[in-house]
Amino acid sequence: MTKIALLPAGSVSDEAARYLFEGQEARYDHHKLIANVFLSTANGTTDYSIIPIENTIEGSVTLHTDWLVHEVDLPIQAEWIYPSIQNLISRKEEVTDEGDKLDYGRIVKVLSHPVAMAQCLQYLREHLPHAEQEHVSSTAEAVRIVRDNPGKGWAAIGTTIAAGNNGLDILEQGVTDHDNNFTRFLLVGNRPFTDRPSDVQKTSILVTLPEDFPGALSQVLSAFAWRRINLSRIESRPTKKKLGTYYFFIDINMSLDSVLLPAAIEEIEALGCQVRVLGSYPSFTYPIVEG
């Protein structure tokens, strides 16, 4: 049985995990903190960790990226896209008027994960500008807190499955500001992922430039450009070693098994750059995105 570490039951990570491993025999170990998700796999308790790494609206989840780079050495084994559908959740009887209509004025606090909250800013500004906003470790945790505090007029932004798990009501569905709200997840661990086939392969690398080398980044990108290798993402993050020094996180739409990519990496290393391969892996696109 495959053992998988992830964020709490009822979170988008939970829904995304069940999508990727549909039909497979798997055991899910839920953790409140992303650090414990990573460490569960790093210490061998689980086979994989599921990590939300990027969102359509909010971009990269930098805390998770930094953990992947600085704290653990876990190869990326797969990536996939999953819709991040957020809902306003509470007890209906607490926040509706005599006509059973939602009364926003009765909601005094909204809780959620900061990334999920940011996906709903326009909705919150329009309907709940008076309500206090509180960030917690996950959307599932937000729903649990609302469940445990009846009568206070609290609401959570979270998933349908979290509302059902905690016996709460969905007051409004799909409160995210954009319909195309998707999250990219990474599956990390030491076991290759072979449960599902994919025609799309990607590779992720870290490139650290040599100091005082004018034009180094341009030369790095040229190593890909003249070989017509497509990059789907490039992002700079601090090395945490010295102010003003950065590494570049690069996603490449090509397998490391190809002829061109290893040659490009060799050229980059010849410039004096350090290159760390984070993984070469299958990529899965959600059917709605494909359509």
TrEMBL record:
Keywords: Amino-acid biosynthesis, Aromatic amino acid biosynthesis, Lyase, Phenylalanine biosynthesis. Its EC number is 4.2.1.51. Residues 205-282 form the ACT domain. The keyword Lyase applies. Residues 2-190 form the Prephenate dehydratase domain. It catalyses: prephenate + H(+) = 3-phenylpyruvate + CO2 + H2O. Pathway: Amino-acid biosynthesis; L-phenylalanine biosynthesis; phenylpyruvate from prephenate: step 1/1. CDD domains: ACT_CM-PDT, PBP2_Sa-PDT_like. It is an enzyme of class 4 (lyase). PROSITE patterns: ACT (PS51671), PREPHENATE_DEHYDR_2 (PS00858), PREPHENATE_DEHYDR_3 (PS51171). InterPro entries: ACT-like_dom_sf, ACT_dom, Chor_mutase/pphenate_deHydtase, Preph_deHydtase, Preph_deHydtase_CS. One of its GO terms (molecular function) is prephenate dehydratase activity. This is Prephenate dehydratase. The lineage of its organism: Bacteria, Bacillati, Bacillota, Bacilli, Bacillales.
